[in-house]
Design a protein that fits this description.
The chain is mainly alpha-helical. The protein contains 3 helices and no strands. It has a domain of 69 residues. Helix content is 57%, strand content 0%.
Length: 107
């Protein structure tokens, strides 16, 4: 099994994907391959060998991706905490239809 990953330039519709979507697709492919290939298969060993080539540049890139994702996650978590403290509720109480009067007021 030979895999040659190039940047995923276009989606099936022909529209260019954002770089972040390319990254997600490539990481999904790598994850799938690493989980599906048997531990001692030549294909898996070859795939893992790609990560030690060129002075571990692919490992460095994976570390950068992880740091970037972790940073984004921290900022979103901080935003959520701020909104919780401010009392923002994105899930309002849903009133069943049968509990409303003809004017839309609650019974």
């Amino acid at each position: 099994m030979i895999l040659h990953i190039q940047s995923l330039k276009k989606h099936k519709s022909g529209v260019a994907l954002p770089a972040s979507e390319d990254t997600v697709h490539i990481l999904g492919i790598l994850s799938s391959m690493l989980s599906k290939l048997s531990p001692d298969s030549p294909s898996r060993i070859r795939l893992l060998a790609k990560f030690v080539e060129a002075d571990y540049e692919k490992v460095d890139r994976l570390a950068e991706l992880r740091d970037s994702a972790q940073s984004r996650l921290r900022s979103v978590d901080a935003e959520i905490e701020t909104e919780k403290k401010a009392g923002v509720n994105y899930f309002p109480t849903i009133v069943p239809f049968f509990m409303l009067t003809s004017t839309g007021a609650r019974l």
